[in-house]
Amino acid sequence: MFALYYDEIFYSGVARLQKRLPIGRVELQSMFGFGKFASFLFLPPHIGQSGAAFFLEPHVRRLRERHCTSPFYATTANGVNRLNFAKLHGASALRAPHRMQLCAACSAEDFKIIGETFWRRSHQLPGAAVCWKHNTQLFETPHSNSPSTRFLLHDANDVWTDAFQPVQLCNDSPSKLMLAVQLRDLLQGRYQGQYRTRALQMGFERKAGIPDFDKLEAEITAFFGADYLSEIGATLLPGAQGNWTRLLSSPKQRRLLHSTYHALFEAFLQSKSPKQAVYANGPWRCPLPVDHGSERYPVKVLSQRRERGILVATATCSCGTAFTTRGGQTDRDVAPSISTISKIGPKLASRICSEIKGGKTKRQTAAALHIPFNAVVRGLAMAKSAALSAASFGRTEN
Ligand SMILES: [Zn+2]
Ligand SMILES: [Zn+2]
């Protein structure tokens, strides 16, 4: 049965399907045409006016909402209608990426878990330079995301296996990661807005009730870097009334601005907010008191997500233990604290055993190793069954 993966863009699914069914360019073109359906295959910025009418039909809603990038635009526009559709997608100074982008870490994970990889919507959003999940730089492939006259689709699997073994470059600027997270949030319909009020609350106030835009814009430019803003078409000119920061502060004009501007403003405001939790760029230290050899930073992978507003990360360490940690950790040399342990590594299990053999109770062991009590119980059970199987293995050998 053919199905699309979570966050997979429609283009990607059809490209994979081409391998199993005899769908050629001619068939694709006759099915999807250029103006009308092409936007399902390619990205919405390339949709024409005639396509917009079809695109908004109720029966294509699910596809549009789950496997196209249009929810990203609809979130800030308070819904998409025929009138604002083309405007939101097309008419903007913002520069959208023209090539399909891929995260090397996501694809490596995909191959491990599902045996193939695919193009994700969240990696194709205008302004997305890094993966929101892995904080790795997105790889720009040679393939265009707009319909070509030859109507060629590119399967992410071929791109991954044939062309290169992408190097996972870790991004070192917090602003790009924060922007990527905001872009993804808009795609999922999460939107806070209220920029003017929040900027005032944070002290960007020229006089009572009037935002200090000059100061705000200087700080936003410093946060993202003038080069990056110019690269994506979001440059802020000192004092200009047409700056997106000022337009976003006007309820009337806000809805007509490209969603990426909203995400830029939101990422900046969140970086200023004291309750914002982040994890410093990895790799990270392991909180477990077990032997990691000469590795100072053995935790290479940290997958972050939010649970009811709290930042939660799942970490996998080279010592074999996987754990979750909450609330962020900005100092790279302080190990993140463990909230739950999902997988106990052999080194941790034997450390737990030696603490118990040394006379500690389970509760004392949990306290000494800074791990949850149930992890001690599970570690002991693991060590016991390992000892049993070793013993029975020994007997059959003799
Ligand atoms: Zn990724
Ligand atoms: Zn470890």
Question: Can you summarize the main beta sheet?
Answer: 4 strands, antiparallel
Kindly name the structural category. Answer: alpha+beta
Number of strands: 8
Name the poorly predicted regions. none
> What is the rounded Rg?
25 Å
Quaternary state reads single chain
Number of helical segments with 4 or more residues:
19
Descriptive overview:
With 398 residues, this protein is of the alpha+beta class. It folds into 4 domains: 165 residues, no CATH class; 80 residues, no CATH class; 68 residues, no CATH class; 54 residues. It contains 19 helices and 8 strands. A 4-stranded antiparallel β-sheet has the order 5-6-7-8, with no helix packed on it. A two-stranded antiparallel ribbon has the order 1-2. Helix 6 crosses helix 10 and helix 10 crosses helix 16. The N and C termini lie far apart (50 Å). Bound molecules: zinc ion (ZN) (2 copies). One zinc ion binds next to loops.
